[in-house]
Amino acid sequence: MDIDTNLEGQAHTNWMAPPPGRCPFCQDPHAQPTDEDIYPKWLVREMKRHGVRSSDPHRRRINWPTTPVCQHCNNTWMSTLENDVKDILVPMFFHVRSLDEHAQGRLALWAAKMAILFDAIGSSIVPHGAGQGLEVFRQPHHGMRVWIAAYHDVNPLAVVSRPIYMPGNDSSDDFLGLCVTFSVVKVAFQVLIPFLDGDLAPLEDFHGSVVPIWPPANPILDWPPRYRFDATSIQALAARINDNRENLTTEVNLDAAQRVKQAPPESGSTSEPQRTE
Questions:
Q1: Stretch 107-123: mean pLDDT, rounded?
Q2: What's the whole-model pTM score?
Q3: CA distance 40 to 44
Q4: Distance CA 194, CA 177 (A)
Q5: Which of its termini does the chain have fewer beta carbons within 10 Å around, N or C?
Q6: d(CA 231, CA 214)
């Protein structure tokens, strides 16, 4: 990443991570956030419908990660977003389709929201202005980047969160941004949240299998791409944006990332049940 690190006159409180326990979106100091499941109920139902079960025979309910979100955000714009994305994302699990700019924008907003929620699970590093911008403008910040890819594995919910550090700086808390790569059943998302303005170097797209949806590059996106990732190859996808502090490889075995074919209708599916923790 080529980043202008001259911060003179630019620093402001929106660059600070939200205080612990505060809603990562509205930042209302008077709100009473409650622990909400990161994976929405419609997605949980969809995964159960396709055979995802708890691996513990003594526990019927799957334990999903939670993070504090205020009731106002959860019941207003986030609820509307979930309803919009459900109608777009679920058909993508099984059918070839086209995504217009509106659908791409809804998916990008949802992916950015998920990335901020993943960050909020632990010690947040994302500046609270990023989450607040989603709540105010209902779209990712112009500096964010969101990509989409096809995915298939027995583990339907892979997550790789990688902080991006300042070049040549050994401090563990000087961040340039956060890159979150995660899968949702048959779809993988990659979200880059930069903390400073800058440009990305050309990125590996794995034979056209990783497609930008924010900012939208194509008025119509044909889904799915040519190849799909699995739980192993998604690690290479996650590593394609890095700060050169580690020796990383972006080589992918395309025998593992098999060519995607149109799936049969759900009623005719004969796949084995999937299991997850």
A1: 92
A2: 0.82
A3: 6
A4: 4
A5: C
A6: 24
